[in-house]
């Protein structure tokens, strides 16, 4: 049940982060990918929030996700916006292909869903193998304080005047050695004040230091590594930044 993104979790994601919402990532990556004409891979494509703008900009993108409910939202978004892309149901590590991508992009912290350091570093090498010569890997991470200082919360989204879905979060553990936080997410679907469905999800995130991730890029075989703060390319991150991006080029 860890990081599963079931039906209610996917519904909440769709309600909270629909296509058309940008955290600065859409504009930033459209600039960074402007010169790329070949295939782009987005692991953790989710509901297509980031995918659709890339497709509308004329990019060729393959979307990868391990959640079928998430991909159902992405398929609906493709139909609604009259664009097309191949969507793959698989884990990041399990996805195998003979195709070579010019870029692999993981915006707004999807990489942190991999809570094992060993698995994450193996994945970087796996991504490198899927890139074409001089292909680029671009990954966003949240600053550490935004992950381990999280507080319990309850949020609500209206489905209709009488129906809603709620999300309650509670911290279960912080492993400072492994750099992993674990929360319990409780999703509840309410119809006319009556509870209809509940989903429980154990949600883990691993936080990374910017230099730590850059070093992992180097070990995996990337060069020309750039760390950027706040979606300003090559600007040194500060404590006030809500996002940090690490980018590297496949070493030939």
From TrEMBL:
InterPro entries named among the record's database cross-references: Methyltransf_25, SAM-dependent_MTases_sf
Domain of life: Bacteria
CDD domains in the record: AdoMet_MTases (cd02440)
Pfam families, alphabetized: Methyltransf_25
Annotated organism of origin: Alcaligenes endophyticus
GO molecular function annotations of the record: methyltransferase activity
Name of this protein: Class I SAM-dependent methyltransferase
All copies of domain Methyltransferase, residue ranges: 40-135
GO biological process: methylation
Keyword tags: Methyltransferase, Transferase
């Amino acid at each position: 049940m860890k990081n599963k993104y079931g039906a209610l979790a996917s519904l909440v994601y769709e309600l909270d982060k629909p296509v058309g919402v940008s955290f600065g990532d859409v504009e930033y990556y459209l600039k960074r990918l402007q010169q790329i004409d070949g295939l782009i891979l987005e692991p953790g494509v989710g509901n297509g929030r980031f995918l659709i703008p890339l497709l509308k900009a004329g990019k060729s993108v393959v979307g990868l996700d391990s959640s079928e409910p998430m991909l159902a939202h992405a398929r609906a978004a493709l139909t609604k916006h009259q664009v097309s892309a191949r969507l793959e149901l698989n884990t990041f590590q399990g996805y195998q292909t003979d195709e070579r991508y010019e870029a692999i992009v993981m915006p707004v912290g999807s990489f942190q869903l991999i809570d094992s350091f060993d698995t994450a570093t193996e994945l970087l090498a796996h991504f490198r193998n899927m890139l074409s010569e001089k292909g680029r890997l671009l990954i966003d991470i949240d600053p550490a304080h935004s992950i381990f200082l999280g507080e319990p919360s309850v949020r609500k989204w209206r489905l209709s005047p009488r129906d809603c879905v709620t999300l309650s979060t509670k911290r279960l553990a912080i492993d400072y050695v492994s750099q992993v936080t674990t929360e319990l997410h409780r999703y509840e679907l309410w119809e006319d004040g009556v509870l209809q469905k509940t989903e429980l999800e154990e949600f883990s995130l691993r936080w990374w230091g910017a230099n730590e991730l850059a070093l992992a890029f180097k070990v995996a075989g990337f060069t020309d590594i750039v760390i950027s703060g706040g979606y300003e390319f090559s600007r040194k991150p500060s404590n006030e930044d809500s996002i940090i991006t690490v980018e590297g080029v496949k070493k030939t």
